Amino acid sequence: MSDALIELLPSVLLEGLLLGCVYAMIALGYTMVYGVLGLINFAHSEVFMVGAVAGIEVYRYVGPHIDNPYALAVVAMLVAAGVSGGLAVAIERLAYRPLRKRGSTNRLVPLITAIGVSFFLQDFVRLIEGLWHGEFYMNYPADARMEAVHELPLGMTIQTKSIIVIVVTAAMLLGLDHLVRRTRLGKAIRAVAQDLQTASLMGIDPDRIIARTFLIGGALGGVAGVMFGLLYSQINPFVGFVPGVKAFTAAVLGGIGNIYGAMLGGLVLGTVETLGGTYLFFLTEGAIGNEYKDVVAFLILVLLLLFRPQGLLGRTQGDKV
Amino acid sequence: MTPGWIIAVIAAAGLASGGALMAWPRSTWPLLGVLGVLFACLSVRGHKSSRFAIALALLLFFIPAAGTENTFLFELVTQMGIFAAMALGLNIVVGMAGLLDLGYAAFFAIGAYTWAIFGSGQAAEFMSGSFPLAGWPYFYLFSALAIITAALTGTLIGLPALRLRGDYLAIVTLGLGQVVRVLANNLDQPVNITNGPQGITPIERPPIGWLLGFMRFIGLGDNPALGYAIFFYLLVLAVIGIVVLVNVRLDRSRFGRAWVAIREDEIAARASGISLTRTKLQAFATGAAFSGVMGAIFSAKQLFVSPESFTLLQSITILAMVILGGMGSIRGALVGAMAVTLLNIEVLKSFSDFLVDLRQSGYVLDLGIVSFNFANLSDQVEPAKYERMIFGIILILMMIFRPSGLIPESRHRLEAGSEKKDGMTG
After folding, report:
1. A285 touches chain B (CB under 8 A)
2. Which residues of A touch B174 (CB under 8 A)?
3. Four-residue CA torsion sign, B58, B59, B65, B69
4. Nearest alpha carbon to residue B240 among B92, B109, B87
5. Any idea which of A1-10, A33-42, A217-226, B3-12 has the lowest mean pLDDT?
6. pLDDT at position B417
7. In terms of C-beta density within 10 A (0-12 exposed, 13-18 middle, 19 or more buried), how is residue A259 classed?
């Protein structure tokens, strides 16, 4: 049995890494919004889902005209980034900004609004897809060139689409790092995250920066949606919920508000969850297994919040009176 | 204080709609009238005993009298009562203590499974003894036990979660609500406790010989289906009565004040000597207990439980009731529960049926510039299946335009008056 465990390890790790890429990309959206507004944007899981659905539409309508599956995947990701980014900005403008302007001090109000937006979007997409195509369970089309298997050392194999996912994730993370650290916009985002009031005194328009933050986070979520579709194929309007909660867990794991924490947390959570799901099955000799992988992820969240609520990379911060 | 003549109008409307309901038990309009009068009884102020008498007359005479002709009335009001008890429980957690709990349906599930496992043959799968536990004391015993198991689970879930800031709590309860469902779905092996996704059925109901005897006595015959409809109606009304009483007493007790204090300002509350974790745990356990007892009643009423009855949608439905009625407001929770239940099982369904009729009739809507043939209406347009969209809209609109709800908590009303005077807040 232990031979099987060791033999499986590299491929389980690789699978965990892929899942981790998706989590990391979604987690960035949660953590950036949390950074500037201190709000858990529950609607972000639906921004991700809309990205996946937008990708499907690209495959439906543009797919027949482009023969190159790699170019098609990139087009789908770009469109999804645009749609999801725009949606995130619209959500901020229509639902969150009115609350901010009213200056309510009740912390529950924006959270409940976010849940409302999330529920609304699930059924809204379902309605639109239902009217448009007559059904709302969708599949990303399989392409033999994307599914092609390559040999790696240690007996691992990797599919072309997995390589694309890893490369795109790496590129986007590096790009985000550059944006946050080296550009004026990044500086402004960091300033707003640190202290919104003071930043606005320094000539930064917080509303504009908040909108940009939603745009960037939403675009990353949209790309994650297409990656999710490429990897796991099946998409429906309710597909966002579980990855959404997991990605939030990842954001907390890394230290919420910290974008490097979100990247790290996503990768760690994806790996641990896949390892946990697989090895539970072996350790209990098949009695319980993969169906408990969600439980593993939530247990991590609870334990983490108990013993290290600031996350892996976060710093503790006292309550301000 | 409402002028006396308004109470007289409500009483007259109650008599009229109650009488109409008895005359036409299957018609929708008298039912809406009766519910409207109940709403009015909950929302006007003052004249407590008159309002109480009107509501009682409707609930204990007119609705049962009409219900013997149309058992759907019992079903509807029982459903409202079950949700109202849960809304009152969640109102303590979200409304009074200000803790956003998104996994509230989990406690309902705990209560439901507590009776379902022992009130059916399921318990024989993992322990010795003769099951189901039939006979009169068991159901009531296990309903009481459901209060304890739900409160204990609430404490267990709360212990880690309540040490966190408010918004983390939301996501932890969201996750743990899912965990309870995953457990209910998968605990059919290695030991079969919950029977997995198939759920448990049939579940025993308490014997109601006394009620059937009474029904024979007043000439209603002894149809057990009608008997159980009446039994659960009365049981739920009684439980609601107790729950409301407990809520009112709690609201004005040390506990209630402590909950509101931590909702308004945790740091100030702590400085005033309130133990945060203990107070929050008390709120959590109390809220869970209400949900637990209704879970046990629900499982006996439905004869069937499965993990699918306890989803996130269920939790959000109850949250929508609390938000619609007004966070922290007891009467608001009752009104919210009635309104959302009515919307869910009566209004949306009727609207769907209406659209189906339109589609079949091929009615053409001609607006001059555009015309639309309803025969072309997609069968995806079915309002009854879009509860998520409707609850989402309720939550968003209430938060943006009326965050204190339809019937604001009385403390909030007092504050709203003073807020304008000092001008600066926050």
Report:
1. no
2. 245
3. positive
4. B87
5. A1-10
6. 46
7. buried
d(CA B64, CA B72): 11
Map residue B406 onto helix, strand or coil: coil
- Under DSSP, the state recorded for B71 is T
A294 vs B182, B381, B392: nearest CB: B182
One-character DSSP codes across B253-316: SHHHHHHHHHHH-HHHHHHTT--HHHHHHHHHHHHHHHHHHHHHHHHHHHS-B-GGGS-HHHHH
Spell out the domain ranges in chain B.
1-70, 71-322
HSE (CB half, 13 Å, CA atoms) of A164? Answer: 24
Contact A131/B381, CB-based, under 8 Å? yes
Q: According to the model, what pLDDT value does residue B179 have?
A: 86
ipTM of the complex: 0.87
H/E run at residue B208:
none
Average pLDDT over residues A205-213: 93
Q: How far apart are CA A225 and CA A240, in angstroms?
A: 9
Q: Alpha-carbon distance A243 to B65, whole Å? A: 51
Q: Could you tell me what percent of chain A has a pLDDT over 70?
A: 94
Separation in Å, CA of A128 to nearest CA in chain B? 9
Q: What is the mean pLDDT of chain A?
A: 87
Smallest Cβ–Cβ distance between B399 and the set A112, A252, A291 belongs to A112
Q: For the domain made up of A2-307, give the CATH fold.
A: ABC transporter involved in vitamin B12 uptake, BtuC (1.10.3470)
Using CA atoms, how far residue A155 sits from A20, A21, A158, A281, B367, in Å, is 21, 22, 10, 22, 68
Segment A45-84, tens digit of pLDDT: 999 999 999 999 999 998 888 888 889 999 999 999 999 9
Contact of A132 with chain B, judged by CB distance below 8 Å, is answered with: no
- Three-state DSSP class for A158? strand
Residue with more model confidence, B193 or A290: B193
Q: Chunk chain B into consecutive blocks of 10 residues (it has 426) and report each block's average pLDDT, rounded to whole numbers.
A: 82 89 85 89 83 89 87 90 94 91 91 90 78 80 92 87 75 84 83 85 85 85 86 93 92 91 88 90 92 93 88 89 90 92 81 78 73 70 79 90 85 52 37
Tell me, what DSSP letter sits at residue B200? Answer: B
Map tokens 């309104």 to a residue.
B339
Q: What distance in Å separates the CA atoms of residue B393 and residue B311, rounded to the nearest whole number? A: 19
The SS3 of residue A151 is: strand
Taking only the tens place, the pLDDT of each residue in A167-184 is 999 999 999 999 999 999
Cβ neighbours of A134 (radius 10 Å): 10
- How many angstroms separate the CA of residue B412 from the nearest CA in chain A? 12
B372 interface with A at CB cutoff 8 Å: no
Q: How confident is the model at residue A289, as a pLDDT?
A: 66
Long-range pairs of A198-205 with CB within 8 A, sequence gap ≥ 24: none
Q: What angle do CA B27, B32, B34 make, to 5 degrees?
A: 100
Q: Using an 8 Å CB-CB cutoff, list chain B residues near A109.
A: 399, 403
Cβ neighbours of residue A54 closer than 8 Å, sequence gap 6 or more: A76, A79, A80, A83, A84, A222, A225, A226
